[in-house]
Specification:
The complex is a heterodimer. By secondary structure, chain A is mostly beta strands. Chain A has two helices and 25 strands. The longest helix of chain A is centred in the first third of the chain and has 15 residues. By secondary structure, chain B is mainly beta. Chain B is built from five helices and 33 strands. Classes of the chains: A mainly beta, B mainly beta.
Chain lengths: 320, 637
Amino acid sequence: MKTSVLFFLICLTQLITAQQIVDFEEFEISQESFLNGSNADGSFPSAEITLPNDYNAEFDSWIGWAISNVTDNQTPGFGNQYSAITGSGNDESTNYAVSFEFGQNIIRVNEGPAVIEGMQITNNTYAYLSMLDGDAFAKKFGGATGDDPDFFLITINGFLAGETVDTTIEFYLADYRFEDNAQDFLINEWTFLDLSELGEVDSVGFELTSSDNGEFGMNTPAYFCIDDVQLAAAMTTNTVDINDSPTVEIFPNPTSNYIKLKGLYNSSNQLNIFNVQGQKVKSGTIVNGETFDVSALETGTYLISVSDNDQLFTARFVKS
Amino acid sequence: MSHVCVKLTQHSPIYSANTIVMKICFSLIVFAYTFSLFGQIDTSIVHDDVLILDTALDYSEGKQEETIDNNELVKQEFPDLLNERSGTHIRSYGLGSLATSSIRGGSSGHTLVLWNNVPLQSPLLGLLDLSLLHQSAFNQASIVKGGLSSVWGSSAVAGVISLTENPELQQEEKLRLQTSIGLFGFRQYAATWQGKTSFWTHRTTVDRETATNDFEYTIREDLPRRLQTNAAYQKWNATHSSLFQLTPNVTLKLNYWFQHADREIPPTTTQNISEAFQEDRAHRFVTTINRAKEDKETEIVLAYTNEELNYMDKRASINSPSNFQRYFLRAIQSFKPVPELTFSLNGNVDFTQASANAFQEDVSESRLSGVLNLKYQKAKYTILASARQERVDENWIPIMPSIGLDWSLSPKLTLIASVNRNYRLPTLNDRFWIPGGKADLLAESGWSEELGFRYTNKKGRCSLSGAATIYNRSMSNWILWTIAEGSNFFSPFNVAEVWSRGIELNGALMQSLNKGILKFSANYDFTKSTNQIPLDIPRIEEGEQLLYTPIHQGNVGIQYASNTITLGLGTTFNGSTKGINEDVDASIVTNARGAYEFTTAEIFIQVNNLFNQSYFIIERRPIPGRYFRMGIQLKLF
């Protein structure tokens, strides 16, 4: 029995792999500025992924991706198109990426297929304030009465070897479709977008749709921002078994209803739970020192992975 | 994706277009029956108090023409008058906000607006904001529907609105002071001084108008009424016109118009806040020298225009100034080799320089054109044949011919017919806007045909007049801004083909009473103006009606006018239209006005939207419910 469990863990360790995070900080940008492709490179490559860009020198116009460190999250309108509504990158970092595309905007994986675990995502300031207050072209979400069932949706598709993978992921940057208007929301913080269900891909595509459409197409500004793209990669020395960690603890183990993690660097972290077949069965955000509900899991052995401060902690626990 | 519609439920009856059309048709049928009741009557009876001049726009043979005289202009807002009198559809963005015209299903750029025979439209935008027009700048207006490009050039595709300031209309020395007040902070102060000597006739006006436009409107009955914000404006207008009789045969006319408007741009119903602001400023000079003898006439028109439009939005950190200077020269030589034939040749030079933030550099455009008109006039008919050749910068525009006929079938009935080739040149924004502008755009062009009747009949103290017209127009290379595949910005393309056709009916019955004239009037326009090529952006199906273009439109009105009292009631019906974002419901709006004239003063009142309807012309752009304006004019001498 012990041998088989060990075998599972070895396999899972290989399946889960470590994460590499693309945070765009390597791009050098002067303060309160952006890169919009005017250097005519046609893309923003990092070690793991490439963000395409198409710049029109004649009209100083761009489409695709830009890299920005603009912090102005108060000014509405097209003139503030390079800003994230958070006013900074994820975790107060400096740089982030801005997407502007009427159709599908692509992120390419540089070397072979990989699992893109996810990324931080938030609204662009121009789009956010347009949805919040309306402008001369686009409506405020909810409409004149506040009751319009508006939404601003990103649909994410994965591509592998020229084929679209079966799974499609949807994420609402704004959702006003609730019966109770108090539940309507606009994303205004960096929020983790889990893409791991796409599996291995060599590129992912993001497509925006809105409930606010006119004869000239979508009225809502077609922008959003991302940061900290997490890719699964081969196990690296950054992966630490919690049992070997002098600081991080997982308890109780075995457990019937919840687990706690203590000693993590970040106050909250993304947690993934895998079964012995390597399938992800649960994910969410775990707060350092607080409980994470596992009561719905079937009895058995599971592996958890937690990304914390550029390290991936893994551990086995038993659901009794 | 279904459209989200804002439903205004309070005071918002749903009108059936068919019902309204039936009512208007019924009214016209009643008028038609009354036609047969009248025989020949003396025309002077019904025009006792109105000075009638030859106000016809030159070379309008084969067309229906509506003339609005000074008496009407001073008592009503010009866009309302245009709508009521000529059936021109006014696309109003709200009280004090942008208002453009649409005639016969054309765009706002397809109606040429002239001031003293000089184009008034912005060469950058290709349109004129009718809300900025102030009646002090002209004392007569003519509206001719139909293509007139061969005579008047670009934009005279669907019609021409000609505004003229004619000092010769002033027959006596006058000094008038006027002030008006109204709801929503409306204030107006105006002064007019006019005089006449043996060789000099002149008129000078100064007018200032302000309003806060902070009206309330209803979104839905169960929601609090909303207050319109950021909608204030102030407008200054100053005009001067002088007519010098230099010799018995030579006149010199000078016209100047200064215009300044500061306007806040209000938010839409789906916008929480707007801090947008627009400043328009214009200086316009026109000099006209005319030398007329028995069989020949020479006229030279020189004009200079300097206009600015500054759009600002503090919240969005937008400051977008633009300006243009326009130099215009028209020289006309006409003569009569035989009494029936008038031969006229004119040459035009139209040079524009413009700058704007959105242009990479200052831009200019020169237009040179020559026009030949041949008018053959007999007792019962007049035939006009015209042809125009224009060169824009380095490009020749195809020759634009036209032919028109006025044929008096009887003293009461005149047949009109015309065939015209028309065009509209790309605007400077179409050509030079960054991003997207395309310098190599073609001119929109096409043909129009129309056939109609005019009927006038007078008997005793009654007068009956009416007109009916059927028209057809096709336009190719219609310019639309769209996103090309793989592009991320809008660009203009010669993509659309538009087919416009329709029927126009109007009638008026005037009864001269003991001390005044009672007038009933009605008009109805059936307009089909459809795209013939399906497009993705804008999303247009083949055969679909153009945006903001009602298929059915009509007016009915009643007016009583005597030497001391004027009372008027007018109702306008606009059929439902399709908007960019939402459909716009049909509306029926009634306006009332009255005036009483004393020896040394005149008081007047105007009540708009008498029945307090909630309605839109452009979706999301609220229009106030019932509101009034009243004022007094002092006649100092």
